[in-house]
Structure formats: structure tokens, C-alpha cells
Amino acid sequence: MNAAPKDLSKLCIHTITTKPWAIEEAAKNYAAAGVKGITVWRDALEGRNIRQTGNLLREHDLTVVSLCRGGFFPSKDPNKRKAALDDNRKAIEEAAALGTSLIVLVCGADPTQPLEESRKQIQDGIAAVLPEASAAGVRLAIEPLHPMYADTRSAINTLAQANDMAEALNSPYVGVAVDVYHLWWDPSLQQEIRRCGEHGNLMAFHICDWKSPTTDLLLDRGLMGEGCIPVRQIRSWVEATGFTGFNEVEIFSTIYWQEDQSVFLKKIIKAYRENS
Amino acid sequence: MNAAPKDLSKLCIHTITTKPWAIEEAAKNYAAAGVKGITVWRDALEGRNIRQTGNLLREHDLTVVSLCRGGFFPSKDPNKRKAALDDNRKAIEEAAALGTSLIVLVCGADPTQPLEESRKQIQDGIAAVLPEASAAGVRLAIEPLHPMYADTRSAINTLAQANDMAEALNSPYVGVAVDVYHLWWDPSLQQEIRRCGEHGNLMAFHICDWKSPTTDLLLDRGLMGEGCIPVRQIRSWVEATGFTGFNEVEIFSTIYWQEDQSVFLKKIIKAYRENS
């Protein structure tokens, strides 16, 4: 088992985690606190020049770890599937402009069709935008989502499924994002993390905690240590593969969003140091 | 794929589904509607003579399909684990008195210890009460629960895990309960249902639906056809194993509990005929 992180050199925070802050404010405050990485949600870029925003982040000595999110490929409606491909191509352009080489995919699902069909459309969708991704030097990370999101957010609900798909697509521009919130319950997690690493597919590592009780299916994530996920143990499995990337704090929480975000940022750093 | 059920001869309803009704009222109304099976939740037996209640159910021509629920074996505290064994022994006595040969196990989990430890305590707990179960002629069905319940309700979250454990315990008095709500998202579901049947472990089949969106982690289940679960397809996999038991409607819903339960019962029967 790993020790807790001694410093913040591998700490990344997702803009959505401190949603009340504009990205400029987040960048300034993350940097002042010693955070070294930022993952940018696309809503944070609205109305901005993306290239300039990327430069601003780098001026704060922040690594732009990834852009969140592409995906949402499946639909019974072929027009919507085509629109999804266009949107993913746009995300690839945005990632390149922002200066990050990774997009996280929340793959999507259409509850009006079988999961198998949604899964096929996801794989076809990724394959369709792969030429643009590789031309732009942008990698696509399939993020398996918790089974409670299988209706609309993702038909890829285990790391085994994500590994299967990444291996089937067999490209250096397709890999997997491991998020402890989605995967902690899986009895095959350690083995699938190892497999993911062995195939060179482990591209991102997201952390937070599962509160007990959890009161909302989407917006009640906890800080590391606040719940029952063995974050440090899972990080040790991830690092055993040779992964040297960031530990990305991704928390959706109506409770924390109501707090003073400077206070919340201090809590994030404390939880990272003590319980990750 | 199966056709929808033509009659109600295999329809069972869980007392919790029509929670506002006392069990005597439920029995009378189920029977009048042509329902042939009832699964009894233990809270419905409070303050009653259990043997007489069993007789009452049979007088209404209802098969007592199972007693819900035993389980909740894991705890970091050895005294609580001992208390859980006592409670499961009590449940076995209650099942025998009620005149049913099946108890459904919601196995439990303790969020303050690793899932692996909870799983070991579950297996040890079932093994510990097996002598009483077999002496009473009562079978114990491990119900794998949705991964969103892995913190406190069950550390057994896939049918593969339940199959593994039932096969390890290797007793005619231990098997598995398949509930579409918990398992519908699993890409290996068809294969694991087949395996469950091949080992003679498929002891119960529960139905309802996953609403999209679902607004509560526990109390927002839907009627069959109201959500995205392919209930009929899953039933066809269950029946392909040779399963001839009841289709048990188990719905926790604050919305439906607020309705006139006679109206709700009509909806259950309509949903059963049309979407199961």
C-alpha cells in the first residue's frame, strides 16, 4: 500500500470540482495553493478564446491534464449520432487549442435501445473520430461509469468492458480513464487495472469518495476519506502499472459547491495529503 | 424472446410493494385480483402469529414464495456479527412457521472495512446458519445487489459473485435470487444466469424497472415497462434454465406508496401482462 502523497506535484483538480469559480479564478487559486494540474470541463471554456485560456493556465504553471468531456455517441436517431460525431470532432479541436493531449469520454447510452446496441454505437463512434484525434495528437480515454448511470450516461460500466473496447480499437490514441467512484465496488478491479496498464491503456486516474449514505445519484460525491473507497489502495494498483500521471480530484457536490470555494480548496488539499 | 405472460399463475407480489396495506389486506386483494404468489417481508409479520398468518395466506390460495429478508452478516464488530447470526436463525424459524422454503438474503456490507472482508464474513455467516436452514428445510438465496448498494447493503454486487459463493458453499440449501433491478446492466448477465441454472442455484426471480431518470437511490423503482430494463428478455434467459418459479414484483416507490393501493395493484397486473 502506498503512503499518502507527500507533495502536490501530482495533484490535479477538475474545474467542475470548484464549479462556482470561473476558470481564470480557479487557475489563480489552484496555482497559489501549489496544485500542479488542471482538467478543464468544456462549460468552463464558454465565451473564451480557448488558445489564450490554455496559455493562461500554463502561465500559472498548471499542466492541462485533460479536457472533459467527449462521448455520448449512442442514439436510436441517426441524426443525433451524427451530431455526436461532430461534437466529438469539435472537442478534439478544443483540446488541441487548449494544449492538452487527452479527452475523457463519457460514452453515453440511449435507454430506448438495448445496451448492446449502445455499446456498438460507442465503439463505432470512437472509430469514426479516431483519424481526427490522431491527426491532432489527442488521445481519447474511455471512462467506464458506475452501473447506476447505465441508462443514459454510459453503457460502459466496468473496467473490463473499457479494456475490451480499447483493445479492440487498438490505437495509441485510445485508452481508459480509471475513476475510483465508478469502479471501487468491482471485485476484479485490481486485475483489470493491471491489464489496462499492460496494454498501455491507462491514461487517467480520477479520485473522490463514496459517501455512506449517498443522497443523490449524481451530485453527492465526497472528499477522499469521507467515504468507503480505498483510494490509497486503488492508487497503489494504478501506480504498480507504471502510471506516473496526475491524481485528478473530480467531485460533483451541491454541498461543496455551496461552500466558500477557498475553504473547499483547503479541504481538498488536506484530504489529498491525508487520505489519497 | 418470450411472449408476455398470458395469465397470472406465476405472478407473485412482495408485501413491501404495497407497503401501505397490512398483510391481511394485501392477501385478500392479491387473491381477489388473481395473483397466486406472495413474498412476505418480515416487517409485515410484526405482532402476528406467524403460523396463523401462513395459514391465512394459503386460505387465499396464495403460495408463500419466500420470506424477505435474512442477511446483513458483515460487521467489524464481532458482537454485531453474532447478533446477525441469531437474527438469521430467527428468520429461518419464521420461514418454517410461515410455511415457505426460501429466505432471500440481502447479504450486507460494513463501509468501515474492506469489501473483501465483508464478503468473507458473508460466506462464513451463511455457512454458520446452514445447519439450521437444512434442518428446517429452508433454502437461502444470495441476492446480488446493485453496485450502488456496495457500501452498506451488500458486498455481493454481481451475479458472478453470487454464483461463486453459492458454488463454494455447495449445498442444496444455498442458491441465488436474480433481480432485474440489480443486474440488468451487467454484460455477462445471460451467461451468469445460464451458469446459475446449470448449478441448480436459481431460486428466485424478481422484477420491476429502472426509471430514467431515477431520482432516489432506494425508493424510486418503476413498474415493468416504465424504464429501460429488458424484463422480458431477462425472463427468457431465466426460463431457458428450466426455472418454473414465480415472477416476483418487488417495487419500492414513495410515488406508488402514496397512491390508492387498489389502483396500484391494477397497474401492477397490467404492467405484468404487457411488459414482463
TrEMBL record, chains A, B:
Gene Ontology molecular function terms on file: isomerase activity
Domain Xylose isomerase-like TIM barrel residue range list: 30-258
Cross-referenced InterPro entries: IolE/XylAMocC-like (IPR050312), Xyl_isomerase-like_sf (IPR036237), Xyl_isomerase-like_TIM-brl (IPR013022)
Keyword Isomerase belongs to the record: yes
Transcription as UniProt keyword: no
One Pfam family, short name: AP_endonuc_2
Keyword terms: Isomerase
Protein name: Sugar phosphate isomerase/epimerase
